[in-house]
Amino acid sequence: QIFHGWAQVQKTADFSYLKQIDDGLNRIGGAKIELSLFNAVAADAYFQCRHINAIEWIEKAHRQCMKSGERFFLAEILRMKANILSEFNRADETQTAKLRQTALKIAQDQNASLFIERIERDLLADQPQNNPIPAALPQNLHSRNGRQDD
Questions:
Q1: Of 31, 43, 79, 121, which has fewest CB within 10 angstroms of its CB?
Q2: What is the distance between the alpha carbons of residues 13 and 10, in angstroms, rounded to a whole number?
């Protein structure tokens, strides 16, 4: 139910599917199971609908990771948190850059190539078009395995 609602939001950005996600999360919560992944999925769906509750869900996902020690999805949660807080003007550029740098380090430590690419894409998008890549960013942002990224 959670993932079906999320998939529908991805296709349609229809607010009505947020209730389906909430209902699924409430059922899981009643079973005393809280996984950061499910909270992150809810955050992403709310964010797709540009709903302010995305902040609440991503904060909950982050807190759950910190409480449980779970790190499976932490890099993506931090990347999403940076995007969500930035979108709703709840963090400045320095705060979002720090979240993304932390996410990148975690993803690199995990060898999570998909998360690395997503984070690097966000880091590049944050750079002004006429400025070179700052030294603090990894040098391979523009090319990976010898090919030029678009």
A1: 31
A2: 6
Evaluate whether 63 touches 34 at the Cβ level (below 8 Å): no
Structure token pair of residue 20: 């389906």
Q: Which two tokens stand for residue 27?
A: 């059922």
How many C-beta atoms surround the C-beta of residue 145 within 10 A?
6
Q: Which residue in 146, 148, 72 sits closest to 114, CA to CA?
A: 72
E runs forming strands in the chain? 143-144, 147-148
User: pTM of the full predicted structure?
Assistant: 0.74
Helix (H, G, I), strand (E, B) or coil at 56: helix
Bridge partners (DSSP) of residue 147 are 144
Question: pLDDT tens, position by position, for the chain (150 residues)?
Answer: 787 888 888 888 888 888 888 888 877 765 545 688 899 999 999 999 999 999 999 999 999 999 988 888 999 999 999 999 999 999 999 999 999 999 999 999 999 999 999 999 999 987 766 555 554 555 455 444 434 444
